[in-house]
Amino acid sequence: MPTSCCRRALAGCWRTSAPWTPNSSDFVAWAKHSANPTLVHAAEIFVIPDAFPVGTRVAKLDGEGYLPIGFFQLWNAARTGVRSYPDEHGTAGRADMIHALRWPRSRRALIPELFVTHLGSEIDKGRTNWRGRISKPFGPVTAPCASNPGSYS
Predict the structure, then answer these.
(1) Residue 137 domain flag
(2) What's the number of domains the chain is made of?
(3) Is residue 101 part of a domain?
């Protein structure tokens, strides 16, 4: 994304998902990946997001187009004059969408080289934590050993 675009834009990125399972096998995969990350960029030209499944992006068909959602919204407050985040909705359910719509479509951009991993939680309908975290944390109750991410102390 050109630097001039970033100064007054709201930027989003790709999301990958490390889901949560009761047996914490996904946490082990995440811990191993964190200790020795899989490269996303190859041969100086390819972007290969194969460590975790790529998540959903929001792009409204009614002409509003791509909306960077709340897990990652990057903007320059000094350049844009946007210094607050909407709180009138009362939950995290739509505040990110309201925030993204502050920018015209021409000022909403995707950073295609950047991937952020969304750490899952217990299986829910996707709205469990919109009023604050109430779901179980990602991973086991005990932390993995630093020397061996697949084992637990």
Answers:
(1) no
(2) 1
(3) yes
Residue 134 resides in a domain: no
* Token couple for 113: 């080289």
> What confidence tens digit (pLDDT) does each residue in 63-78 have?
788 999 888 899 999 9
Question: Containing domain of residue 112, as a range?
Answer: 3-120
> Taking the model in full, what pTM does it have?
0.69
Instruction: Residue 26: name the closest of 147, 128, 129, 144 by CA.
Output: 144
CA distance 32 to 151: 10
Among 139, 119, 127, residue whose Cα is nearest residue 52: 119
**Distance (Å, rounded) from C-alpha 95 to C-alpha 130?**
10
Q: What DSSP designation does 111 have?
A: E
Could you tell me if residue 142 is inside a domain?
no
Beta bridge partners of 138: none
Query: Helix (H, G, I), strand (E, B), or coil: what is residue 109?
Result: strand
Instruction: Give me the residue label for tokens 């086991």.
Output: 140
Nearest to 104 by CA among 88, 82, 71: 82
Length of the chain, please?
153
- Distance CA(130)–CA(92), nearest Å, equals 5
Rg (CA), the chain: 18
